């Protein structure tokens, strides 16, 4: 271990120390970290904090959802009947599958299995794409049925205007919640593209796989949000 | 109102309580703040840096001291909470014999309706020494009805009745302000409350009115053909309204609801929301067809229909004991309403 | 193994040699706009928040001019409504929330930790860009006609009735929120993972503790604001009734959601102020902060309790009597940790060596004004009084005592305290003292009358008012003029000092702390070798002993 500097050195940084930064460094070690371990820990912790604030973001939305569900129980029931739960369930399975491939990709990156990891990331991307595509199909159906809230909303319950309004609120929440979820998926897909490129280039290995692991954390989080959304919006 | 008041006039029964609490807090917190200021200034001067005082003396913070200035302020704060809550309770509990006035806020005016039928805009006449209960809603955005001289204020929400009350203790003219920002002319949404001697108030009430609020409501009740279904016998397609106010009623979905102002409001505007047990959801929604003031008239009428003679004594007493029966007040308001319901149902 | 200790070397040594530092390391606009150096990013923030402070200040001053007369004859009421709305939005979202964390947190926090940079330098730069994008939305809104909802965007006014630029400004606030989130995330990770060897949690300067608490609040509260604003925008665009009662929504729910963020946001604004105060009290009394652990944990206590009191903004808004009681009680509890801080700071002065330099003047002002702001919070927390003074000028005065008398006083203390470190130059001391005095006098003259006029009955956000309120309003406007001079002066003399100020040495104050152990301005990497910390925070006895010995020698 190198000797520690004196305060005098701290104050006079003009002259280079004997042991500077000339030791061999991993190419992906950023200059301000001491070693890859610290870098890995820092980025993992960062992602956990990020996920924590995401939980609150969606948590606020869920909270409003529950309050209005309490206010309009009948409308919530009616609204969820407009959802095709078979499609939702299939999509859930697709998403869980993508979580599996993502987990395998992290495992592959740790073991420096370049081709396997790339394959798994591509599979994750495809499954995620299928999910978003199916979601888009569902959106088109809803819009076609006049269920998009606002001026395009044509669903009317003549004998019970409150129910109409409640269903519109339900659909507002449906589109906001699934829309924000889909936005997270699309951002994740963009990141996946970048990771596919890096993996193929051979950036990752047993020493340096943190970014893939963090990507995995993000992807799993987005999947878990869907695990909550699916029953709340499709099954009630 | 003098030219340069530093303290608002005390003109209601709760004003002395609020002011007492306020001045008490001023004394406590002002005293403590002053002590802190003096301490800061004294210490900063006494221990200013001089050649002879280049070095500070360290002390270990004594735990006892830290605990003292944690626990004692904590206790004082909790006592302040208790006092504040006590005053708050006094402000919230409406006395039983209050005169029931209705208020509607809209951009940017205050409209008041008296049980005797008078309407006022941006002014409110009330007698001194009587509790006034204000039931209020907004036609558009959130407003807030504030009587600074009475120390009471409440936000006025759209599509929902809220209540507040005060008892003026001083005659005169006092401010009414809107305290919740409501748009362009927010600062013009002001008015005056005129507190009068009871005799003057009686004279004022004798002035022009189109009949009591409840009788105005009764006319609307017929105009909108409510009476074709809501009859005084259970043969109608709608529930009997007589004596209903203040009762608890079961709903079709198994829940039950207390018939209060907000439930009556909802049942007129959006009847399908809560259907009384044993009835069909046949009634059309009146959302958008009845304005706020007519709604108040209808509400006042529905509340005033007494329970049928055959009913139990309990049903008659109930609304009165709650102090909410609009028309039947000992003062001027009551007389007009009593015979009305019997006629209209023929 | 030799380790760095405080008595290894004399601290005070004027530096004369021109060295490489973060300012002269690279030149050119791009070297700033693409920098990943936390110190340069702090400077970028310093410029941006100063611009927004001036803009918000101009709005405030125009409002005070309007309020000279009761008739409301200077502007139309629409203009006045836009002025107070924009004043609030600009000052809160674009100045107070980012100011201390993004400027001093960015600059000082990594140095205090002995780190070369924040954990995620690129993210740090990104957060400045996000802030600027939000800011551009703000500027566009200001130029294209403004917004008139009040900074609270209460529904249904904001979603159905206002015909101003509500969508653009809420989008701006939404975007800016992510900037705070990323900054908070960066700080949290940096504090957890980037501390120098030997720098244990209880050796951390109190600045770091407060920043930690602030970051936690930012991370937990800001997402709620984000989702609230999303729902607000959805409602505004689609005209559906999430919060509009006429369409089936609940406007009081909006207030709950909004204040669940915005009350903790008050602590996002004041905790960093407390952070600076703790540093300055130690530095200018040459003493370890009295009750270090109590001050440190009171920051966490405030952060925690701050989440439980939001509904005290809703006492007259239509919540039940019982929930009002609960929130009133919790509000009283949150006052305790603030009181602990005030008592400990005051006690630190005892047997200290108090310097009356400019930062300390601001600190003494802060303690006094924050005390007033804090105790008037008790008035508002007491239910019986709140019913009367809610939405009156009493509230306006109260939060300005916290925000301006607290946060901005601390910000001014911080900028004078760290100016030599940031720029390598000393500001002119007497000008500094004069402006501190002007700010203190001007502030009290502006805001103390507002307590009185509020209790007498003047509602806030009133463009025209009853004539009997005029005298107090004139006093307030007079004070605002003095205050404006007090804020303008530092901009002038600090700018002047960049060129003409006396060169500052490594440690012009004789303060301890790692930031005073590196040169002024610091080199790009902060320290050439990662320092090893073997001393406690604010270890003045050891330091002063070392200083005395070198002087004797």
Q: Main attributes?
A:
heterotrimer, A: 236 residues, mainly alpha, Four Helix Bundle (Hemerythrin (Met), subunit A), B: 346 residues, alpha+beta, Immunoglobulin-like, Cytochrome Bc1 Complex, Chain D, domain 2, 5-stranded mixed β-sheet, 8 helices
Describe the protein in words:
The complex is a heterotrimer of chains A (236), B (346) and C (553). Helix content of chain A is 74%, strand content 0%. Chain A has helices at residues 7-11, 36-71, 73-81, 85-110, 114-144, 161-201, 210-235. Chain A is elongated and about 75 Å long. Chain B is of the alpha+beta class and 346 residues long. Chain C is globular. In chain C, helix 2 (38-66) runs parallel beside helix 4 and helix 8 (251-285) runs antiparallel to helix 11. Chain C contains 16 helices and no strands. By secondary structure, chain C is mainly α. Chain C starts with 28 loop residues before the first helix and ends with a helix. Chain C has helices spanning 29-33, 38-66, 77-112, 121-143, 157-161, 166-193, 206-238, 251-285, 292-305, 321-348, 358-381, 383-389, 393-423, 429-456, 470-500, 540-552. Chains A and C meet through helix 1, helix 2 and helix 6 of A and helix 6, helix 7 and helix 8 of C.
């Amino acid at each position: 271990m190198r000797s520690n500097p004196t305060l005098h050195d701290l104050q006079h940084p003009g002259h280079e120390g004997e042991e500077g930064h000339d030791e061999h460094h991993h190419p992906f070690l950023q200059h301000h970290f001491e070693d890859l371990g610290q870098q890995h820990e820092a980025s993992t912790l960062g992602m956990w904090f990020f996920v924590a604030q995401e939980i609150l973001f969606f948590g606020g939305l869920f909270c409003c959802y529950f309050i209005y569900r309490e206010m309009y129980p009948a409308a919530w029931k009616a609204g969820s009947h407009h959802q095709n739960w078979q499609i939702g369930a299939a999509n859930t399975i697709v998403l869980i599958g993508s979580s599996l491939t993502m987990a395998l990709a992290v495992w592959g990156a740790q073991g420096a299995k370049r081709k396997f990891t790339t394959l798994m990331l591509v599979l994750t991307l495809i499954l995620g794409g299928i999910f978003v595509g199916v979601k888009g199909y569902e959106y088109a159906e809803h819009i076609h049925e006049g269920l998009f809230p606002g001026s395009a909303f044509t669903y009317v319950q003549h004998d019970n205007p409150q129910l109409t309004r409640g269903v519109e609120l339900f659909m507002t929440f449906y589109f906001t919640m699934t829309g924000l979820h889909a936005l997270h998926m699309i951002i994740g897909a963009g990141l996946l593209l970048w990771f596919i490129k890096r993996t193929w280039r051979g950036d990752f290995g047993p020493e340096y796989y943190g970014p893939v692991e963090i990507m995995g954390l993000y992807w799993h989080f987005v999947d878990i949000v869907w695990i909550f959304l699916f029953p709340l919006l499709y099954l009630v | 109102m003098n030219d340069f008041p530093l303290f608002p006039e005390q003109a209601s029964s709760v004003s002395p309580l609020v002011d007492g609490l306020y001045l008490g807090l001023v004394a406590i917190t002002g005293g403590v703040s002053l002590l802190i200021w003096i301490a800061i200034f004294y210490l900063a001067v006494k221990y200013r840096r001089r050649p002879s005082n280049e070095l500070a003396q360290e002390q270990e913070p004594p735990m006892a001291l830290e605990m003292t200035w944690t626990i004692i302020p904590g206790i004082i704060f909790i006592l302040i909470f208790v006092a504040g809550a006590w005053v708050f309770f006094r402000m919230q509990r409406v006395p039983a014999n209050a005169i029931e006035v209705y208020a509607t806020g809209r951009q940017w005016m205050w409209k008041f309706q008296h049980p005797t039928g008078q309407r006022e805009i941006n002014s409110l006449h009330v007698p001194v020494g009587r509790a006034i209960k204000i039931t209020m809603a907004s036609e558009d955005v959130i407003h807030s009805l504030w009587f600074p001289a009475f120390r009471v204020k409440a936000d006025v929400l759209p599509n929902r009745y809220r209540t507040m009350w005060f008892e003026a203790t001083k005659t005169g003219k006092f401010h009414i302000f809107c305290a919740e920002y409501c748009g362009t002319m927010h600062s013009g949404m002001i008015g005056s409350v005129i507190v009068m001697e009871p005799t003057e108030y009686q004279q004022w009430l004798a002035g022009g009115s189109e009949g009591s609020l409840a009788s105005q409501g009764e006319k609307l009740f017929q105009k909108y053909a409510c009476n074709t279904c809501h009859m005084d016998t259970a043969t109608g397609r709608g529930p009997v309204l007589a004596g209903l106010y203040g009762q608890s009623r079961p709903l079709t979905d198994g829940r039950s609801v207390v018939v209060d102002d907000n439930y009556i409001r909802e049942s007129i505007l959006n009847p399908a929301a809560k259907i009384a047990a044993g009835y069909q959801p046949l009634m059309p929604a009146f959302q958008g067809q009845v304005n706020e003031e007519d709604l108040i008239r209808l509400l006042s009428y529905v509340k005033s229909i007494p329970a049928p003679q055959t009913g139990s004594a309990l049903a008659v007493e109930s609304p009165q004991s709650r102090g909410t029966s609009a028309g039947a007040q000992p003062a001027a308001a009551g007389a007009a309403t009593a015979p009305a319901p019997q006629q209209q149902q023929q | 193994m030799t380790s760095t200790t405080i008595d290894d070397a004399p601290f005070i040594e004027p530096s004369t040699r021109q060295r490489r530092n973060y300012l002269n390391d690279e030149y050119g606009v791009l070297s700033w706009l693409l920098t990943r150096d936390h110190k340069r990013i702090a400077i970028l923030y310093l410029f941006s928040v100063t611009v927004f402070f001036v803009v918000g200040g101009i709005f405030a001053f125009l409002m005070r001019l309007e309020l000279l007369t009761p008739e409301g004859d200077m502007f139309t009421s629409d203009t006045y409504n836009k002025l107070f709305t924009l004043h609030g939005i600009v000052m809160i979202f674009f100045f107070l929330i980012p100011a201390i964390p993004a400027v001093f947190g960015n600059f000082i926090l990594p140095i205090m930790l002995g780190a070369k940079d924040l954990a995620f330098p690129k993210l740090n730069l990104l957060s400045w860009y996000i802030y600027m994008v939000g800011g551009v939305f703000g500027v566009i809104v200001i130029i294209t006609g403004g917004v008139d909802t009040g900074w609270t965007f209460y529904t249904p006014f904001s979603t159905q009735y206002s015909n101003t630029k509500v969508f653009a400004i809420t989008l701006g606030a939404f975007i800016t929120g992510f900037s705070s989130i990323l900054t908070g995330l960066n700080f949290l990770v940096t504090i957890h993972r980037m501390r120098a060897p030997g720098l244990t949690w209880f050796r951390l300067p109190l600045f770091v503790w407060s920043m930690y608490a602030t970051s936690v609040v930012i991370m937990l509260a800001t997402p709620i604001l984000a989702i609230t604003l999303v729902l607000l925008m959805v409602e505004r665009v689609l005209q559906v009734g999430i919060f509009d009662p006429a369409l089936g929504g609940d406007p009081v729910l909006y207030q709950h959601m909004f204040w669940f963020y915005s009350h903790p946001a008050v602590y996002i604004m004041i905790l960093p102020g407390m952070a600076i105060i703790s540093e300055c009290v130690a530095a200018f009394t040459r003493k370890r902060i009295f009750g270090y652990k109590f001050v440190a944990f009171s920051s966490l206590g405030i952060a925690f309790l701050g989440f439980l009191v939001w509904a005290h903004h809703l006492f007259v808004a239509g919540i039940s009597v019982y929930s009002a009681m609960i929130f009133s009680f919790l509000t009283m509890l949150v006052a305790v940790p603030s009181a602990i801080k005030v008592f400990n700071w005051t006690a630190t002065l005892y047997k200290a060596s108090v310097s009356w330099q400019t930062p300390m003047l601001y600190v003494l002002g802060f303690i006094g004004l924050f005390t007033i702001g804090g105790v008037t919070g008790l008035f508002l927390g007491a239910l019986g009084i709140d019913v009367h003074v809610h939405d009156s000028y009493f509230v306006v005065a109260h939060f300005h005592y916290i925000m301006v008398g607290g946060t901005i006083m601390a910000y001014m203390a911080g900028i004078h305290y760290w100016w030599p470190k940031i720029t390598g130059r000393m500001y002119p001391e007497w000008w500094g003292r004069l402006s501190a005095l002007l700010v203190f006098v001007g502030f009290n003259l502006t805001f103390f009358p507002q307590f009185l006029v509020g209790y007498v009955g003047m509602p806030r956000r009133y463009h025209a008012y009853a004539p009997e309120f005029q005298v107090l309003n004139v006093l307030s406007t007079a004070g605002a003029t003095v205050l404006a001079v007090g804020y303008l002066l530092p901009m002038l003399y600090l700018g002047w000092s960049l060129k003409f100020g006396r060169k500052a040495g490594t440690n012009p104050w004789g303060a301890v702390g790692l930031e005073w152990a590196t040169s002024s301005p610091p080199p790009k990497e902060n320290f050439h070798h990662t320092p090893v910390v073997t001393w406690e925070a604010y270890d003045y006895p050891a330091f002063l002993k070392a200083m005395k010995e070198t002087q004797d020698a």
